[in-house]
Amino acid sequence: MADRTADRPPARRPGGRNARVREQILAATVELVARDGIANFRYEEVAETAGVHKTSVYRNWPDREELVVEALLRYVEDLASVADTGDIHRDLVDFLVALAGGLETPFGRTLEQAVQPARQSRTVQALTRILDERVAAMRRRVDTAVERGELPPVDSPFLGEMISGPVHLIVNRGMRPFTRKDAERIVGVVLAGIRATAPHA
């Protein structure tokens, strides 16, 4: 009998299709939250937007808020990263440009609005965790710069607030786009001030 093993299609990896369906559902959730906001997000529209059967949504995420939280975390995970090229000025500028780019999207604006209400839902807690991770990443990068002698000893959380605050102001005000030139000026002024006011040994 001839060996027909070579004629068989490759075996499907377990969970492969389900993984694709999950990605489609998460992408659809991001799209709907960006369009309607978290408060107006309709669980029932996810399946139609994702192009999947509604049972796939309910099977993977029986709880509406769990779906929203996972989609939010997946979408904004890169906001918590700060590169380390060895040039603190450049790394902070790149960080601000990426931050502004994220905040200027419809989804980014939704995120900004979501952290405003004074309520402790799981969604708000997830967004708060993202912000905390971003602050921690900034602190690690600044502390590394201090260890290398790129910067004098500095309160890294304060530095992070000083450089990121203007980004939120410009973007939320919506009067003009945030540019790399803005980022260069902000970082330049803040780092110059830190170096100028550092205590001399």
From TrEMBL:
Gene3D superfamilies: Homeodomain-like, Tetracycline Repressor, domain 2. It comes from Streptomyces diacarni. Residues 19-79 form the HTH tetR-type domain. PROSITE patterns: HTH_TETR_2. SUPFAM superfamilies: Homeodomain-like, Tetracyclin repressor-like, C-terminal domain. Keywords: DNA-binding, Transcription, Transcription regulation. GO terms for molecular function: DNA-binding transcription factor activity; transcription cis-regulatory region binding. It comes from the Bacteria. This is TetR/AcrR family transcriptional regulator.
